[in-house]
Please model this.
Amino acid sequence: MKVATIGSGYVGLVTAASLAHMGHAVWAVDIDDGKIAELQAGRIPIYEPGLDQLIAANVQDGRLTFSTEVVEGIREADIVFITVGTPSDENGSADLSSVKAVAKTIASGLDRYKIIVNKSTVPVGSTVLVARVIQENLKTAHQFDVVSNPEFLREGSAVADAMHPDRIVVGVTSERAAQAIAALREKLQDIPEAGFAAFTALHEPDYWLRTTPDQQVRHAHMITDAGAGAGNEAFVTDVSAHAFEGVTEISIFTPTHPRLLAMIAGACTSGGANIVGAQITTTRDGHALDIIRLAREFDRSEDEERRAERIAGAIRALMEGKFKIDDIMKNRPKPKESLKVFSVEPQVVIDNNLSDALTVIEINCLDRPGLLYDLTREIADAKLDIASAHIATFGEKVVDVFYVTDLAANKVTNEARQTAIRKRLHRVLAAGYGG
Ligand SMILES: NC(=O)c1ccc[n+]([C@@H]2O[C@H](COP(=O)([O-])OP(=O)(O)OC[C@H]3O[C@@H](n4cnc5c(N)ncnc54)[C@H](O)[C@@H]3O)[C@@H](O)[C@H]2O)c1
Model:
C-alpha cells in the first residue's frame, strides 16, 4: 500500500520504517526542514536500536522517502498516519493543535478516498474531531474514514515494540467487527502493529462478519507480506484446498477493474473449474478482494492447489492483457444435455430499496458451466460497475446477487434502463440452455 506518516518524530519514524520494511511505499513527512534535511542526509535524529539500519535499507530500496512536502505526501498515500506530538499542558490535557493542523492539511491533499489513522495520543472524542476538521476544510466531495490506533511504543525499544507489540488498540464503529479484529490479532503476532492497523483499516465492518477467522489470517498475510497495493499493478492471490467441504478457495487482491469478475469467471470456466460460490468486495482503498470457491476435482489437496494456482495465473495474465478473454472462452466446456430437462424458471429482480448507494440485481436460475462469466460480461457490457457480489449454488440452482452502480457511481433508477438490463440478462439465461 502507499502510506504517508505526518510527523517524523519518534512514532512517525518508527511507524514509517516498519511499514517500509514490510514492503509498503512510505512517505515520511514533517514541517521541520532541519529534521528532514538530516534524515535525507542519512542522519537519524533519535537513537533507537535497529532504527538506523532499517531506515537506511528501506531508503536504499526506494520504499522510504523523507520530505517536507506534506500535501504531496498525503496525495501519494492511500493511508495517512497522523504521528505528530500532543504535549500535555499544566493541567495534563493534551495540546491538539498539531493534530488539528494536520487534519486541515489532509483536507487539502484529499484527492481520492483515503483512510486516516490517528496514532498520536489523544483524548476520547478526537477521532470525531479529526473527521470534523477534515470535513470542514474539504473542497472536494471525496470520502475518507478516520481510524484510531494509539501508539504504545517505549523509547529505547521502539522498533521491537512496533514489530512485536504487546497490545494493539484499533478504534472502529462496530462491536462485532471489533471482536473479530481482536481475535485476529491474537493469531497474527508476526505482523507488525502498523501493518496490522493498515490491514484492518482496509475493510468495511461487514468484512469481519462475512469472512471466517481462517480467511482473515490468510488475507492479512496475502496483503501485508507482499506489500500489496504499493504499486497500482499489484495482484496477489492465496489458494487453499478444503477437503472436508469439497471446495478449493482462491482469494484475489487487486486494483478494481470493470471486467475483473468476468475475467475471473472466464479463467475458471476455461480451466474447467466449476464456481460454487463467490464473495466479491471492494476495500476502502478501492481494491477488489474476491473469494472464489471452486468444486473440488482431485483427491489430493496438493493437486487442487496447483490447479487453483494455474487458474490464478490465467486471471493475472488476463488482467495484464497477455491474452484476451474471448480467445480462452472459445474452448469453454459445453453445458450438459441433462440440464435442459430441469424446469427452473429463471428470475431477474432489480431492487433499489436494499442498499442506500447500490442497485441490487438478484438472479435465480439453473447453474451451468460459464454462467457467471456470461452474466458478468453482460453486466459489464450494460455499463454497470459491480461493487460487490455474492454467488451461491444450491445443488443445480444458483442465486447470484450483484450490487452495482452505473459508471458514474449512481444507482440505476431509470425504469427503461432497468427493463433493458433485465432483458439482456434473461437473454443470457435462455441462451445457455438452448432456449
Ligand atoms: N515517543 C514515544 O515514546 C511515544 C509513545 C507512545 C505514543 N506517543 C505519542 O505519539 C505522538 C507523537 O509522539 P512523538 O514522540 O513521535 O513526537 P515528536 O515530538 O518526537 O515528533 C512529532 C513530529 O511532528 C512534527 N509536526 C508537528 N506538527 C506538524 C504538522 N502540522 N505537519 C507535519 N509534521 C508536524 C514535528 O516537527 C515533529 O517532528 C504523541 O501524541 C505522543 O504522545 C509517543
In short: Residues 301-319 form the longest helix (19 residues). The mean pLDDT is 86. The two ends are 47 Å apart (CA to CA). Residues 6-12, 30-32, 35, 70, 83-86, 98, 101-102, 120-121, 151-153, 155 surround nicotinamide-adenine-dinucleotide (CB under 6 Å).
